[in-house]
Specification:
The protein is built from six helices and ten strands. It has a six-stranded mixed beta sheet, with helices on both faces. The mean pLDDT is about 95. The protein folds into two domains: about 130 residues, Rossmann fold (3-Layer(aba) Sandwich); about 60 residues. The longest helix is centred in the C-terminal third of the chain and has 17 residues. The chain binds adenosine-5'-triphosphate (ATP). The site of adenosine-5'-triphosphate has 10 residues, from α1. Adenosine-5'-triphosphate binds next to α1. Pfam families: ABC_tran (PF00005). Belongs to the ABC transporter superfamily. This is ATP-binding cassette domain-containing protein.
Length: about 200
Amino acid sequence: MMDLDLQEKRFGDVAVLGPIRFSLERGETLAIEGRSGIGKTTLLRIIAGLDRTFAGRVSRADRPAIVFQEPTLLPWRTALQNITLVTGASPARAGAALAEVGLAGLEDRFPAQLSLGQQRRLAIARAFSAEPDLLLLDEPFVSLDPALAEDMLRLTERLLRDHPVAAILVTHSTDEARRLATRRAVLEGRPARLRPLTG
Ligand SMILES: Nc1ncnc2c1ncn2[C@@H]1O[C@H](COP(=O)(O)OP(=O)(O)OP(=O)(O)O)[C@@H](O)[C@H]1O
């Protein structure tokens, strides 16, 4: 599903990421932990194909779906259109995806007419509606209050169970990683490398 053989990623004179190799199959969720500034987002951007200036190779089946820290929604489009226009899903399928995340009845709302939690649900519904082979989640629950974060975590747990994707979750939270991931690893050192975690 996804195969990474990264030799090095530099920003100018600084080697940020060192040799990193791993593969990911459908049904697997890899959680990547690591301190702030270590290179998690940089690694995710390389895997997503958003950054091509690195030494090495990445191969994936298809364009991945990405959920960023902040929901990146189209402000002048309705909730339903945010899904159909971006993913190519039919209105019926987009409607079903909204229902799946508890947004039934809010199809015609604009993002600004949704609460932050609802916007995040919409972003997640959109990611899964694209029916991606690979789903990349970059700290999707950061800066949410604990109740909302728990709510989103449960929702994501359920969606990952019900949809067969390969997923990578970047997170600061070991608790989140333990709950969502089938494999865990930590990014550490300079240049940073990926060390598998057990337990
Ligand atoms: N465009 C850039 N130019 C130069 N340096 C950069 C650039 N983007 C990131 N960096 C540096 O690369 C390192 C890794 O950044 P990155 O954003 O990947 O870290 P992160 O682990 O995702 O951090 P956080 O958890 O705080 O989001 C940091 O030291 C950062 O300052």
